[in-house]
Amino acid sequence: MSQNEKIKDVKELEIRIEKLEAENSENKAAISDLEYQNAQMKKKLNNLWHKLKVLFFLSLALLVMIVLMFTTTPPIVVGLWIIFGTVFLTIALFVFFARFTFTKFD
Asked: What's the predicted TM-score (pTM) here?
């Protein structure tokens, strides 16, 4: 190999190294962005999981209270509570679903 060929090979390798370094920095930026988005998604999922746990325990408490109400109160009062509970639960579900529907997920 002549001196010119060696210099040419070195220059080609330097150009290739520069390209790879630029690609490496782009990949690092992309990874950083994906890690940030992953953290944001985990935060939103944890928030949603917390709300689902609260909803589950409130539903469980409501079920227990309904059973207690049916076993301890006269039928007229039970009928009134059923009407009140149905109206209240319907309104609560509409409010919950409206808030959930209009929540933006970025």
From this structure: 0.50
